Amino acid sequence: MSALLVTQSPSESRPQACSLEVLNNLLRLLSQELGRPPKFEEFYPIHLESIVESVLHWKLVRSDDLGSSPYGAQIMGRCDFEQKAILVRSQASGGAQRYSLAHEIGHALMHKDAPRCVGGSLKRVRPTRSPLSSGPRPEDYAIEREAERFAAELLMPAKAVRRAFQEVAGSPRLWSRSQLAEKALPSGELTIENVSEAISNYQPTRGKPLSATFGVTGAAMATRIRELGLVF
Predict the structure, then answer these.
(1) pLDDT tens digits for 122-162?
(2) Could you tell me the fold of the domain covering 49-155?
(3) Is residue 105 within 8 Å of residue 51, measured between CB atoms?
(4) Domain boundaries in the chain?
(5) Structure pTM?
């Protein structure tokens, strides 16, 4: 089991510690079902539906339209504590739906005692970790950012991303002006940002693109790659 996950340490942030606890619970469930620890390709992309139903014991509901926030943005997901249900906008892309679902799982686990959550729901308005530059109050912004951090840690654990990245790139890190970077990005400026996104969607000779391995959008995968400093 330790090949897939790392042990939680006291220095880890709440989103990271919470996501690791969820991943370990999921790992135990899958191991029981299979009669052995799951292989890497059996564990990723993370089985979010199993987390909702078998770890949280909540319901998952997909809806065509969840309305708009007071700031005019489309709501991508909603966490309903009364009904113990997570609602996700079904019109979004598969990767965006998964990120929204992971984000809402974070709310369900970490924010049930937040003032706006008790007896109601906390709504999410962004599918990726773009800065919330206007609208939400500071306290809402902090909660949203914590859920975004949780989603990244849950869907793309650092240890797993580093392992998959090395398989695609052939080394632990990738120089943005290397031959592989040029191959992944045949046109366009070879910046860290551009190469990170290109390598996220790059089809290696064997296996799947990184974004497909983790079931996220290319933009979300590129953000995680930059966070971990894998392209320089």
Answers:
(1) 554 444 444 444 455 666 678 888 999 999 999 999 999 99
(2) Arc Repressor Mutant, subunit A (1.10.10)
(3) yes
(4) 49-155, 158-227
(5) 0.85
